[in-house]
Specification:
alpha/beta, eight-stranded parallel β-barrel, 12 strands
Length: 251
């Protein structure tokens, strides 16, 4: 059985790590390069960097950050935010990123997924999906969760898989920053309907939440931010707890 992965997420704004609740009320959480180095040394399986305020002129800033992080860590890391072309991905991968994450650009131009997979391989293309449950239906949102679409989470996720993406990073906007647990019902449905790995994001508050998302949510990986950044959960302790609960994990 494949081991489950624990992935700290660093949301980057103006070169700093930030964290909010339901995608708003951001507060500073530290220097991303320092945090990355700490996580790599303390047992994180992978890292995710999301430039939440990325615009075209800031692409160089993110590329520079990727280079600095690549010099400090020896675990895979994924970079996302404002990526909308083969050229963007080329720059980031050349600077040391292992994978890239696309979100709004994939919805606006689904062919981009096919193009990136054809050029770089599915193993390094992650499609992030931010969705909110509204009147019982999971609706995909764009631009950091600010803009609702007419897309259904499960239909879009299936299309993403069909277009060749290697992984899906699903963030529940309803759960993000609440520390009430992951959206396990939606995660289980995604994991059952798709054949590619699903990364759970949004809602981690305690160690039991991680166990629940691997067992009930059938997630392949669990991503969290504030509980790691503010040392509410140490990754080493979390992994030992997961092991005790018979979750396959790399210690």
């Amino acid at each position: 059985m494949l081991t489950k992965r624990i992935i700290p997420c660093l949301d980057i704004k103006n070169g700093r790590t930030v964290k909010g609740i339901n995608f708003v009320d951001l507060r500073d959480a530290g220097d991303p390069v320092e945090l990355a180095e700490i996580y790599a040394k303390t047992g994180a399986d992978e890292l995710v960097f999301l430039d939440i305020s990325a615009t075209e002129e800031r692409r160089r800033t993110l590329a520079d950050l990727v280079l600095r992080v690549a010099e400090k860590v020896n675990i895979p890391f994924t970079v996302g935010g404002g990526i909308s072309s083969v050229e963007d991905v080329d720059i980031l991968l050349h600077n040391g990123a292992d994978k890239v994450s696309i979100n709004s650009s994939a919805v606006k131009n689904p062919q981009l997924i096919n193009d990136l997979v054809a050029k770089f391989g599915s193993q390094c293309i992650v499609v992030a999906i931010d969705a909110k449950q509204i009147d019982g239906e999971w609706i995909v949102h764009l631009v950091g969760g600010k803009v609702p679409t007419e897309l259904n989470l499960f239909q879009w996720a299936k299309e993403v898989e069909d277009r060749g993406a290697g992984e899906i990073l699903f963030t529940s906007m309803n759960h993000d920053g609440t520390k009430d647990g992951f959206a396990n019902e939606a995660l289980a449905k995604l994991s059952t309907e798709l054949n590619i790995p699903i990364i759970a994001s949004g809602g981690a508050g305690n160690m039991q939440h991680f166990t629940d998302t691997f067992v009930k949510g059938k997630a392949d990986a669990a991503l969290a931010a504030s509980v790691f950044h503010f040392k509410e959960i140490e990754i080493k302790d979390l992994k030992e707890e997961l092991k005790r609960n018979n979750i396959p994990i790399r210690l």
